[in-house]
Structure formats: C-alpha cells, structure tokens
C-alpha cells in the first residue's frame, strides 16, 4: 500500500471544485449511495465498508501517444512531476486504495496507443494472468471485445453502473447484446478531455471582422445559431499567401485545415449518424438515409469548394492532412496562422503560451433548424475491461474501478473541468458557458465506438473527393452486415 501522506497544496485550489458542473451532481444519481461520515466520500452502497486483504490489482496501460497532437496520462499519477492533474490522479488512487485496502498498479507497458490492441492480444491468447484489467484505446481496443476476450461486467458484485460517475450513454453505445463489457467514466479525465471542440483565434477574428466579431460569434453559438454556413462564411476569406509562393501551401494562413479524422466531428456535429439502435436494441445501419446524404453534401462543399479547397481565398489546402500532420496544424493555430483549430478539449493544452486569445466552440449544426449541438467523444477514449482469465481477483478489480470512478467524479474530473479547462486554458469568464454547452452536447455513435467500416465512409468521401455515398455502401455491404451481426450476437 502507498503510505505517503499527500500534502494539500493551496496552489492546487485554483477554484472551488463544483461537481454539479460536470454532467450533473453525484447527489442526483439513481444509484443507492452512502456518504461516509468520517471522510465525506460518496460511494455506491455496493462498496460501502468493503475491505480486502491488501491484494494487488494490476492494470495494463499505455501512456505513449502515437499522434503527437494527442496525449495519455500515466494513471498512477505522481506527486513529483509538477503536473496538477497527475497529482490529482495520485491523490485519488491513494484514497481508493486506503478505502478498499488494495494496491492498484497501472503498469506502463511501453506500448504506443496505435499498437495497444496488437500488443494486448498475445497476452489474452496465452491466457496470461499477469493483468487483472486492461486499458483499451477505443478505436483499436473494441476489436478485442468483439473477439470475446473479456467478461460481461453485469454480474459484478461491486460495480454499480447506475452511478453517474459512469458514462452511461457512452456505455450503452458500447453494449453487446445488452451486456456491458467495458467501463467508461470518471476513472480518468479522458471522457471530458476527448470531447470534440473547435477553437477560434480571437485576434484573427477581430482583425478580419471587427472588434465585436468574437462577442457576436459567442452570442450566436449560445443562441443555437452556429451552423456550417456560418463557419464557411468566416473561413473562406482567411487565406493569405504568407510565403509569397503564388500558390496555396502549408505555410499560408487559413480559415482552417483538418485531418481526415476530424471530418467525423463535422459529420456528427451536423446530426449525421452511422449505426444506431432500433426499438429492440439491435444495432442497425443509419448512414445512407436522406439526412446523412445531405450532411455529406454540405461538408463536401465546405471542404472542397468553399472550404478546404485549392482555389485562392478559400479556407484551406486541397488535401486534408492525415494524422501525422496534426501537430503541424495545432502549431499553425498557436502561431496565429489559422482562424479555427479543429480538435478536442485536450487540444487546448497546446495553446497556453499563445499571445492571441482563443475560445472553444462546438462543431457547427447543419442548419438553424437542428435542435441541438453534438460533440462526439474522440475515438482515442480510454476504456477498461476485465479479462476472462481474471477469476481470482474479479471482485477486487470491480470494486477498485467502482471506487476510483466515484472518487474521480468528486475530485479528479471537477478539478480538470473547473480548474484546468476553464481557468487555466481560457482568459474570459464568459467563455466558460461555451465549455458547459460543449460538454453537455457530448455524444458518440455505435459505428464510432466499434471502429466499423461504416464509420470510415464520411472520411473516405472527403479524402477521395467522391460525393456518392451509395457507392461506398454498396462496395462495403457484406463487411458492414458481418460487423452488425457480430455486434448484435455477442453476449
């Protein structure tokens, strides 16, 4: 057990930690909860007073991002690395360990995030008992779930998925035949940090559209009037030939550039769907309907005609840059060479040294008739699963994650949301309303969660400059049907 006394440093208290700002107050959860009188912990009755025998829970993890613009925290946390979030992780883990009398070890395997599933699979095939749980990177890790390597968690003695420290809507999308195989929620900060967001450079906006342009834009967003048309209008006049090459290239100023992966954020933000559940809970193909075709037509125009086109005075370059260029695009925004940066909440960590002010915006709506904004959770989201081989410490593992998630809801996530995301990254109190609006609009899609073939269609249509969605649906019909069958039959 870790016995180091955690010092409560006043500098960490950058503002009060308001749990109710992060997806609803824990007190409003449907779970049966108990407040422990001694230390004020709010926990499910399933883990009230539970004590084990000091067992070690070993969790496979990756901390190495394959994409330079992304990041993964060491879930062990640290008192010594000077990172406030890392310290909050450490403090939360110590409290969970002490409460349950367990030792929780997140084992950094050195695996890169893009290779995580490839590196985990041999351990599962060998029926290794080295790890009691695995940290899965959503886009490649859910394939392991579909292969049947992990336990259904619904019969866990200590896991209580009615608690709002679990990302219930997200977990519903990840269910297989009605069963939970993965845990997603406030174990870490990634369900918040991976929320899709577009950032605007306030200085560039003012220089091109007047001193009141940003306040007007923020008002438009908060009133629900931020649409693809508005984004196009602001973007398409921003191109400047900064290097005097007489041609559009990466050295120029743009309205925006985005990677192929970012096209999905635009698609979901405009109300596009991929795979949804029918009235019986079965996963069914949704992309290909009139709405999705209209959305992709509008995005095609944005990216290739009035948006990211090769024609002068447009928003961007002819090619949509792939993931290896993400760090370049982040740097261009930080250097004041792009009006918009297409990313996620975590992208803001790259902008803290900017001299220009910036603010987060949701992905725009299709049109003003769209009722809500939609901000999808990035597919590098971290999930946790318990392998079939964990028979000796199944109960202890479930209890460990239940308590970590509950405590994370009360301390870790509010700290990130209020003290880091709102105070450290933003310079205008009014912009915190945008953070709340974006956070409240979080969503995902079954097609994204399972990294299905259908999920790739919006990306391919933009990358390959093809507006005919039906071609992709016909070409991939057999593969899509097989994937739906697996999703609906496993469990």
Please give a handful of descriptors for the protein shown.
491 residues; alpha/beta; four-stranded mixed sheet; three-stranded antiparallel sheet; 13 strands; disordered N terminus
SSE order and pairing:
Layout: E1 33-35, E2 42-44, E3 56-61, H1 84-100, E4 103-108, H2 116-125, E5 133-137, H3 138-146, H4 168-173, H5 190-193, E6 196-201, H6 202-209, H7 213-222, H8 228-235, H9 263-269, E7 275-277, E8 283-285, H10 290-305, H11 326-334, E9 340-344, E10 358-361, E11 375-376, E12 382-385, H12 394-424, H13 432-440, E13 442-443, H14 446-449, H15 457-463, H16 469-475, H17 477-489
Characterize the structure shown.
A hairpin with a 5-residue loop joins strand 7 and strand 8. The strands form 5 sheets. Strands 4-3-5-12 form a 4-stranded mixed β-sheet, sandwiched between helices. A 3-stranded antiparallel β-sheet has the order 9-6-10. Strands 1-2 form a two-stranded antiparallel sheet. The protein has helices spanning 84-100, 116-125, 138-146, 168-173, 190-193, 202-209, 213-222, 228-235, 263-269, 290-305, 326-334, 394-424, 432-440, 446-449, 457-463, 469-475, 477-489, and strands at residues 33-35, 42-44, 56-61, 103-108, 133-137, 196-201, 275-277, 283-285, 340-344, 358-361, 375-376, 382-385, 442-443. The longest helix has 31 residues, at 394-424. Helix 1 runs antiparallel to helix 12 (394-424) and helix 2 packs parallel to helix 3. The model is unreliable at 1-30 and 308-319 (pLDDT under 50). The protein is built from 17 helices and 13 strands. It is of the alpha/beta class and 491 residues long.
């Amino acid at each position: 057990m870790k016995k180091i006394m955690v010092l409560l440093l006043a500098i960490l208290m950058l503002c009060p930690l308001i749990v109710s700002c992060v997806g609803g107050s824990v007190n409003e959860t449907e779970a049966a909860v108990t407040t422990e009188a001694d230390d004020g912990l709010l926990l499910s009755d399933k883990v009230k007073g539970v004590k084990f025998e000091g067992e070690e829970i070993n969790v496979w993890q990756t901390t190495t991002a394959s994409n330079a613009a992304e990041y993964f925290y060491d879930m062990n946390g640290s008192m010594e690395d000077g990172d406030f979030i890392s310290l909050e992780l450490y403090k939360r883990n110590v409290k969970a360990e002490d409460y349950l009398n367990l030792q929780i070890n997140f084992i950094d395997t050195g695996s890169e995030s893009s290779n995580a599933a490839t590196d985990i699979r041999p351990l599962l095939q060998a029926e290794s008992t080295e790890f009691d749980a695995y940290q899965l990177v959503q886009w490649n890790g859910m394939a392991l779930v579909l292969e049947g390597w992990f336990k259904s968690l619904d019969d866990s003695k200590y896991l209580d998925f009615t608690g709002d420290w679990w990302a219930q809507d997200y977990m519903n999308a990840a269910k297989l035949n009605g069963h939970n195989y993965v845990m997603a929620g406030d174990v870490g900060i990634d369900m918040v940090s991976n929320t899709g967001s577009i950032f605007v450079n306030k200085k560039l906006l003012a220089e091109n559209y007047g001193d009141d342009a940003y306040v007007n834009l923020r008002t438009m967003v908060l009133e629900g009037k931020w649409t693809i048309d508005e984004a196009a209008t602001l973007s398409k006049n921003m191109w400047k030939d900064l290097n005097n090459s007489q041609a559009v290239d990466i050295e120029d100023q743009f309205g925006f550039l985005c990677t192929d992966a970012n096209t999905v954020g635009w698609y979901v933000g405009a109300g596009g769907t991929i795979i949804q559940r029918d009235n019986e809970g079965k996963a069914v193909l949704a992309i290909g309907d009139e709405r999705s075709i209209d959305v992709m037509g509008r995005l095609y125009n944005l990216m290739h005609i009035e948006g990211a086109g090769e024609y002068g005075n447009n928003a961007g370059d002819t090619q949509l840059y792939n993931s290896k260029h993400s760090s370049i695009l982040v740097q261009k925004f930080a250097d004041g060479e792009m009006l918009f940066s297409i990313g996620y909440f975590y992208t803001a960590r790259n902008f803290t040294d900017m001299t220009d002010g910036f603010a987060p915006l949701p992905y725009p709506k299709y049109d003003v008739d769209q009722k809500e904004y939609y901000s999808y959770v990035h597919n590098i989201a971290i999930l946790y699963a318990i392998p079939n081989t964990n028979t000796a410490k199944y109960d202890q593992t479930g209890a460990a994650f239940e308590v970590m998630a509950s405590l994370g809801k009360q301390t870790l996530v509010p700290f990130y949301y209020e003290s880091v995301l709102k105070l450290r990254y933003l310079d205008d109190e009014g912009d915190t309303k945008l953070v709340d609006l974006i956070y409240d609009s979080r969503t995902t899609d079954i097609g994204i969660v399972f990294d299905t073939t259908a999920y790739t269609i919006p990306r391919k249509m933009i990358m390959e400059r093809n507006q005919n969605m039906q071609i992709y649906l016909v070409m991939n019909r057999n593969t899509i049907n097989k994937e739906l069958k697996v999703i609906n039959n496993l469990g």
